Structure formats: C-alpha cells, structure tokens
C-alpha cells in the first residue's frame, strides 16, 4: 500500500505479524496456560501449570515448548524442575507495534462509520 506521500505504508507489518506467535496462541489449551501464568504473576512449574489443563502432563509440556519457541514464555531450570513465566514486556511491545502499524496504514478516522454505511445501503 502507498501512502499520500508516495511511501510504502505498512512495510514493517509483515515482520511484526509472526505466524509462529499467532499459531502458538491459536490453541485453547495454550491460551489457558498463558492465562494461568499471567494470573499467577510468578514463574510456575510444569506440574502447577498442568492443573489448569484437562490434558496429560506430557501434552502440557509440548504446549509450553510451543509457547516458549514463539517467544511468549520463558523457561528457567531450577534443579530438576523447569519454571515458566510470561514474557509480558515482549508480548506487550509486539502487540503495541502491530496496533500502531495497522493504525498508521488504516487510520481509525479513515474507516467508514459502520452505522452510516448500514443506513446508506
């Protein structure tokens, strides 16, 4: 898309829209895991996290690995246990950048008013 100054608009949006991140967040169990960790506000062990999910511990471990690989969680090993926590600042920064990029391409003020569009047709 080209803006009014002839520059490519939304050029950085494709870098921000990480399929890996959105795929990681597309599973209801992974969303439950993320929610549980966010509510705890502290690192949790795999067994603590598994309490929120109706799936086997090994499946929870795979979900945690997917969330970690997507940059949503970080893992810290303490002895034999692994503790997971939310990479909240990274997620907030990424989502804010996505929102800013979309808004710069498609300003909210430029969007047609849904009510007037519905009444005109």
SSE layout and pairing:
Blueprint: H1 13-16, H2 19-24, H3 28-40, E1 44-45, H4 46-50, H5 57-69, E2 73-78, E3 81-86, H6 88-105, H7 114-120
Helix pairs in contact: 3-5
Could you explain how this protein is built, in words?
The protein is mainly alpha-helical. It has a single domain (16-104), classed as Arc Repressor Mutant, subunit A. It has 7 helices and 3 strands, in the order H-H-H-E-H-H-E-E-H-H. The chain has helices at residues 13-16, 19-24, 28-40, 46-50, 57-69, 88-105, 114-120; strands spanning 44-45, 73-78, 81-86. Strands 1-3-2 form a 3-stranded antiparallel β-sheet. Helix 3 (28-40) crosses helix 5. The radius of gyration is 19 Å and the shape is elongated. The mean pLDDT is 84.
Number of contiguous helices? 7
Question: In sequence order, what are the helices and strands, one letter per element?
Answer: HHHEHHEEHH
Q: Give the count of structural domains.
A: 1
CATH class: Mainly Alpha
Helix content: 40-55%
- Tell me the CATH superfamily: Winged helix-like DNA-binding domain superfamily/Winged helix DNA-binding domain
Evaluate the radius of gyration.
19 Å
Largest sheet geometry:
3 strands, antiparallel
Q: What CATH architecture do you see?
A: Orthogonal Bundle
**Assembly state:** single chain
The CATH topology label is Arc Repressor Mutant, subunit A
Distance between the termini: 27 Å
Which structural category do the helix and sheet elements fall into?
mainly alpha
Strands, total number: 3
Strand content: 5-15%
Major beta sheet, strand line-up: 1-3-2
Look at the structure and give the mean pLDDT.
Answer: 84
Uncertain spans: none
Global geometry: elongated
């Amino acid at each position: 898309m080209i803006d009014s100054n002839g520059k490519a608009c939304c050029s950085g949006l494709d870098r921000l829209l990480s399929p890996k991140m959105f795929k990681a967040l597309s599973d209801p169990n992974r969303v439950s895991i993320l929610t549980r960790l966010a509510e705890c506000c502290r690192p949790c062990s795999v067994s603590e996290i598994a309490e929120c999910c109706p799936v086997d511990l090994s499946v929870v471990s795979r979900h945690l690995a997917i969330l970690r690989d997507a940059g949503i969680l970080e893992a810290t090993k303490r002895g034999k246990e692994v503790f997971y926590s939310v990479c909240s600042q990274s997620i907030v920064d990424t989502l804010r950048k996505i929102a800013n990029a979309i808004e710069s391409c498609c300003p909210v003020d430029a969007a047609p008013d849904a009510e007037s569009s519905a009444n005109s047709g």
